[in-house]
Known about the structure:
Blueprint: H1 2-34, E1 45-49, E2 58-65, H2 68-76, H3 79-92, E3 97-104, E4 108-112, E5 124-129, E6 133-136, E7 144-148, E8 151-155, E9 167-169, H4 170-173, E10 175-176
Parallel strand pairs: 1-7, 4-9
Antiparallel strand pairs: 1-4, 2-3, 2-5, 3-10, 5-6, 7-8
Amino acid sequence: MNARILMLGLLALSTSGCQLWGMADALVDKSVARIGLGPNEVVSVGVMAKLSSVPSAVTVDIAFAYGDAAATVLGENSATTWFNEYRGFCRSYANQLDVVRLELPMGYSALLSELPEQHRLAQSIFVFVRDVGKGDITALQTPWVNVADGELELLPAPPGAEASGNVLDAVKGAKTLC
């Protein structure tokens, strides 16, 4: 009789334990978002490289920071430092950072609509443009990075009439760095 009661008790405990474990997982995911790790509003990122007097390709890194340490590093460093040290940042903050690189010829636009899987949990999202500068796009929903004459302009939507007719499918041309 005691063996049956013991077996029933263990069966009930194991069944409720699985449910408790599942609830704990859900609470952890929700608590992460509540403590500042997202959700952000970014759905897609567009990049436009206008023609200038010195034609060259534009290199753009979009960095998604999922923790305080990575967000601080991204926020405190310039675009020059980022491009010189991105390999070290990727190694040091591998579990807190996703980085996508686009290389775009001048006169072209690209729309990156397939972002990293967990991008909605990113605490901060920065755009680094080689030899131009950086910008914070965390609060924008469909940001466009407009690069013209060595300057960076962040727009909340596509630039409209100034948009290039030469649009690249950035899903195929983007490279994940880390």
